[in-house]
Design a protein that fits this description.
Largest sheet: 7 strands, mixed
Distance between the termini: 75 Å
Radius of gyration: 24 Å
CATH class of the largest domain: Alpha Beta
CATH superfamily of the largest domain: FAD/NAD(P)-binding domain
CATH architecture of the largest domain: 3-Layer(bba) Sandwich
Length: about 475
């Protein structure tokens, strides 16, 4: 069947749905095409179920402080992993149900199936031919899985399978300590699983600052086994277990959680039919301020473009693409980069990272260790390090890498300040309540003020030792 629409959106994940929110403001002649389950990657297998698991793990981990705090019999507490996973799925299902409900309301404006490009305005979806004036690609990404593991795939988990498990074995390997591997590795270790994590790189959790990375790595190594470097891990089946080995180590585990990255869902789209150049990944050239692919009536948003694979960025990209397919095209200013890893302590990267500033003599790096921060001490959370990167001449905040208790909140303060182009002195004019973790940020800013070329009179003259 042939169908003509103003806009076709391929993918009903976060980017696609945010794009749809803009499209619906101008036209009801659209079609949402989706291949696979509804409910968004974030709600089904990503951000939300992982945070549920992390929170439960935090509950259980807190028992370590009970005895010294006067709470008795903490040694009698135990965890039931099957019940933990049921609770995670319950949370997940509530969130997914809301997404599915909103999509089903669209009726025949939703089409299930895999889309392929015939040309820049025409898609093939099963036996249907869709002709659209504008098309948005928002097909998301998929966890990387090495075909070499196919022979023992029942022993391999990705986030697509993890939360569907009835139980987690007592020994688990984790490949990759990026965001996903680090978050889930720590959480599962806190729930009593013997975790061995293998990471071929030097830096974990997306960090690039050596000092912050060293601090965070030392903290994590107290909770589970970590192999850093030593080459890529090699997996093989030994009886009913999996052997993980690299150049320096080997271990037997019952299952392996693979968290070595995600691959954009591009291959099945047949972008080669568009007559444009694709890079070695099959990625087309696009403008991140408009989301348009070259000069075609096609836009690409969300994880599928592998530019900023985070939900809030996917939302912005979806909105930008959705706006530009129904209105006069505009270039949009992208927000200050912000990424958070929900480990304990939280890792956060804000604005420019260490690699961008390390060789610039006009930028200073100032550090604050949360070991002696008052509120963090009272919360038994006094660990972590924050490094702030500041323009030496005027005190403008440029970036930060932090591993701090409840760092998600400090990260937002810094990101908002950078978005408004505030200086250290601007920030120090703001109120900081006592006792709060934000006082750690205040102390960090005071330390910065002592190193700036420009000085301010007044309260900033209070000595800092």
């Amino acid at each position: 069947m042939k169908r003509e629409v103003e806009v076709a959106i391929i993918g009903a994940g976060s980017a696609g749905l945010y794009a749809l929110s803009q499209v619906k403001k101008k036209t009801d002649n659209f079609l949402l095409i989706n291949d696979g389950p509804y409910g968004t990657t974030c709600a089904r297998v990503g951000c939300m179920p992982s945070k549920s698991l992390i929170r439960i793990a935090e509950y259980y981990h807190e028992r370590e402080y009970f005895e010294k705090s006067g709470i008795r019999n903490s040694d009698k507490l135990s965890v039931c992993i099957p019940d933990v996973l049921k609770r995670v799925r319950k949370h997940r299902d509530i969130l997914v149900a809301g997404n599915i409900k909103n999509i089903t309301r669209l009726g025949d404006k939703v089409l299930s199936g895999r889309a392929e490009f015939i040309n820049a305005n025409t898609l093939k979806v099963g036996d249907d031919e869709i002709v659209a004036k504008k098309i948005i690609i928002a097909t998301g990404s998929t966890p990387i899985f090495d075909p070499k593991w196919e022979a023992f795939k029942d022993h391999i988990l990705t986030t697509d399978e993890l939360f569907e498990q009835e139980d987690i074995p007592s020994t688990l390997g984790v490949l990759g300590l990026g965001v996903i591997g680090l978050e889930l590795g720590q959480a599962l270790a806190r729930l009593g699983v013997k975790v061995t994590a293998v990471h071929s790189k030097e830096f974990i959790g997306g960090l690039s600052d050596p000092a912050v990375n060293k601090n965070m790595l030392e903290l994590c190594e107290k909770e589970f086994d970590i192999w850093i470097g030593g080459g890529r891990a090699v997996l093989s089946k030994v009886d009913d277990k999996i052997k993980i080995r690299n150049d320096n180590n080997e271990v037997l585990v019952e299952k392996v959680l693979v968290a070595i990255g995600r691959r954009p869902n591009l291959k099945s789209l047949k972008l080669e039919n568009l007559g444009i150049d694709l890079d070695e990944r099959g990625m087309p050239n696009f403008n991140p301020k408009t989301m348009q692919i070259e000069d075609l009536p096609i836009y690409i948003a969300g994880d599928v473009n592998a530019d900023r694979p985070l939900l809030h960025e996917a939302a912005d990209e979806g909105r930008i693409a959705g706006y530009n397919v129904v209105k006069a095209q505009k270039k949009f200013k992208r927000k200050v980069p912000l990424a958070i890893v929900f480990t304990d302590p939280n890792i956060a990267l804000i604005g420019k990272d260490y690699q961008e500033i390390k060789d610039n003599e006009n930028i200073i790096t100032v550090s604050y260790n949360f070991k002696e921060q008052g509120r963090a001490f009272l919360m038994n959370k006094n660990t972590g390090l924050a490094n702030l990167y500041v323009q030496k001449s005027n005190g403008k905040l440029l970036g930060a890498e932090i591993a701090a208790p409840h760092g998600e909140h400090l990260a937002h303060h810094l990101a908002w300040a950078m978005e408004q182009e505030l200086t250290v002195h601007d920030m120090l004019k703001l109120p900081f309540y006592h006792p709060t973790l934000e006082e750690g940020l205040y102390t960090l800013l005071l330390k910065c003020s002592k190193k700036l070329e420009v000085k301010k009179e007044g309260i900033l003259e209070i000595d800092f030792q």
